[in-house]
Structures are given as structure tokens and as C-alpha cells.
Amino acid sequence: MTEPAEAVAAVPAAQPPPGAQPAYPIESVGNALRLLLLLRSRDELRISECAREIGVARSTAHRLLTMLEHYEFLARNPSGRGYRSGPALIGLGMAAVGLLGIRDRARPHLEALRDELDETVSLVLLEGPTARFVDAAESERPLRVAGLVGLELPAHRTSAGVAVIAAMDDAQRAERIAGRSGLEQSVAAAREQGYALVHNESDIEIAAVGVAVPGALAGLAVAAPAGRATAEAVTRWAAAANAAARRIAIG
């Protein structure tokens, strides 16, 4: 069946990545990969937007999105409208983290910081508006915060996420906090103190201190039951975490 031409003519097609074209290009594969690349700059994909961006009919965009969903590179949003990163794509991203080395590089420092403070320490990466917990060294105390590897939360709800935003340059930071007065206050406090303190980060009665890893969209979070987060303890956790973050950055 012939697809409607108007769906491809109104808006110029998104350009493929620069560089020499392959000798035997496969258009459908190229279009599917271009759809995935759109996730670098947005939280979700909609059929109409995808059709415009890559210059195809809506029916073609829908088939591409459905195939990517089938192989778990995309997943439907809970609302049923639009698609977001799926388990397969997230898994590739996690593998890339390992290849880049930050998780392996950070691991001994997580364990050393856990041993020093006797609290759970996590490595957190910022991915767009999301903070992802990619590794953790869990405290062995009977009452402790569990390691949350794989958990995703809005970056502004996590101590490490706020700390990383606070460490961004002025333009990036302003973009992140635009329209969020509460976040603006938290970021300002983190910039002044050198760490972010968040209560109830992922559950009730939990306190977490977050610091940024210099030169990376990554941070460390020290989490403990809120009752142990005295002013003295928070100061000690922040100093130790900042020292560990600097060691991770140096490599």
C-alpha cells in the first residue's frame, strides 16, 4: 500500500550522523538507529515527532517503533502514549559505562568509603533528567540502606543528582533548574556546602549525602537511616565522599 506523501514532505528530514555512508546502506536499519539517537535529546518518542524527524510516513515510524519495542530497545510509557528507553538499550548503556571505566575505577573507592563510614555508598550517573544508581557498596550494619543498583529516579530527587547539577557550568545549571524553585534552593545550598543533603531519597526515613565526581556526570551518595544523619555525621560523610570523588576523578 502506498504511504501518504504529505507525512514526509512538510518538514526536512533529520540528518544522519556525519561521515562517509556505508557501501551498502539499509534504509530501514538506518532509520531505526536514527530514532534511537533521538533519545539523546528527549525523554520520550512520539510517532508523529519521529515521522517528522526522520522524514517518513507515520505508518512507517509506527512500524519502526514497534520493532524496537519488540526487541526491548524501547518500552511504552506507563501512560500508553510514547516510548522511552527499554531494557535492552539501558543494558547497552550500562555496558558502555563499564567500558568507559568509571564503574570499575570507582569500585575500590566505593568499598573504601563504605568501610570508612560504615554506611552504604552508591555510584550515580546522570542520564538526561534521570539519576541511575549503577553500583553500590552496601554497609554490613544490621540497620542499613540497601544498595539500589539499577534504580532510576528523577535527578532532582537524589542527593548525588543535585550535587552534580550544582557542579555544572552556569548555563547547564540554569537549564536544569528552570521553573523549579525548590531545586534552585537545593542546588544553591549544595554549591555553598560542597554537598547535597536529601531526606527520603528513595524511601521514608532515609537520609543521603551526595557529592559530584569532578569532570563527570556522576556522583557519590552516602545513604543511612535518617536517625544516624546528625550534623556531625553529615559533615564527616561529605568530607570523606568528596575526597573519594576526587580520587575517582584522578583515576
Automatic annotation (TrEMBL):
Domain (HTH iclR-type) spans 26-87
Sorted keywords for this record are: DNA-binding, Transcription, Transcription regulation
Record flagged with keyword Transcription: yes
What Gene Ontology terms for biological process does this UniProt record contain? negative regulation of DNA-templated transcription
Q: Which GO terms describe its molecular function?
A: DNA binding; DNA-binding transcription factor activity
Q: Which InterPro entries match?
A: GAF-like_dom_sf (IPR029016), HTH_MetabolicPath_Reg (IPR050707), Tscrpt_reg_IclR_C (IPR014757), Tscrpt_reg_IclR_N (IPR005471), WH-like_DNA-bd_sf (IPR036388), WH_DNA-bd_sf (IPR036390)
Domain IclR-ED positions: 88-251
PANTHER family, from UniProt?
HELIX-TURN-HELIX TRANSCRIPTIONAL REGULATOR, ICLR FAMILY (PTHR30136), HTH-TYPE TRANSCRIPTIONAL REPRESSOR ALLR (PTHR30136:SF24)
Protein name as catalogued = HTH-type transcriptional regulator TtgV
Source organism phylogeny? Bacteria, Bacillati, Actinomycetota, Actinomycetes, Pseudonocardiales
**What gene is this protein translated from?**
ttgV
